[in-house]
Amino acid sequence: MDWLSIVAAAICGGLASGLVALLLGRGENSGGIRAGVVLAGLLGAGLAHQLLDPEIQIMRMKRELAKQPAMRAIKQYDADTYETVLAELKDGVRQHKSQAAIIEAAGSQVAQLTLDRLPRASDAAAVAYLQVMVDQMRALDGENCYRFLFPARGSHLEVVRALPEELKRREQVALAEVVRIAHVAPRDVPTVDDVRAPMIKIYTGLSEEFGPRVRLLETGGSLGADHATVCKLYTSIFARIAEMPEDQGGPIFRYLVKTMNGQRAKKRPY
Q1: What is the number of structural domains in the chain?
Q2: What does the alpha-carbon distance between residue 114 and residue 6 come to, in Å, rounded to a whole number?
Q3: 180 vs 153, residue with greater confidence
Q4: Which residue range forms the structural domain that includes residue 170?
Q5: DSSP assignment letter at 33
Q6: What is the SS3 assignment for 167-198?
């Protein structure tokens, strides 16, 4: 089984949700979705450019980011990443970029930070973050769950709108703790020898539960895949890890993220 492609899809799904949750939220009085850069959804509709001065948008955006637990933690424990995210957001607003483009540019910075920090977070923090991802997948119907795991460009905005607000808040808190604990008390990164046996046990359990359908873990993102079954498989595999004792599930998740991040680094041109 290609564990790395599986964890990559789920991490990207969870991170994308978290990133949009950083920038999208629910206004206290508006009753609708809003974001730091997107004021009452106007930017996404191309209207904010006409109605609001970019500097006013940036000022409001900074106030919104200050309310987000994850962004506060990033600002405190990784100021360089925070400033880069802020610069991407400012640039997007000033250049009248689309909502999706702004979130993608700024979000990639937070995504990479999360991938860097998760392997050195505590087992408790890693499992708490993973559990939120599992609960997010469970909260979505089959089609939205599939889009969450295998997003088309810009599609996460609609998927995240389908998530309960409580899950968005929980991911904020979980990500903030990952960033904090990996900075103040970094753990050693698990090795393959630490996780090989429990990973085999998980796959055996999946095979017993899903039978031949377990092969969809290797081809889940392909054209014509059964979206509902793929989502059940991904949810099951990560639920099994999250339900393990923290000193077993935590190392598995941290190892997978570390290995995936290493492969990503080899592909980056710098």
Answers
A1: 1
A2: 17
A3: 180
A4: 3-265
A5: E
A6: HHHHHHHHHHHHHHHHHHCCCCCCCHHHHHHH
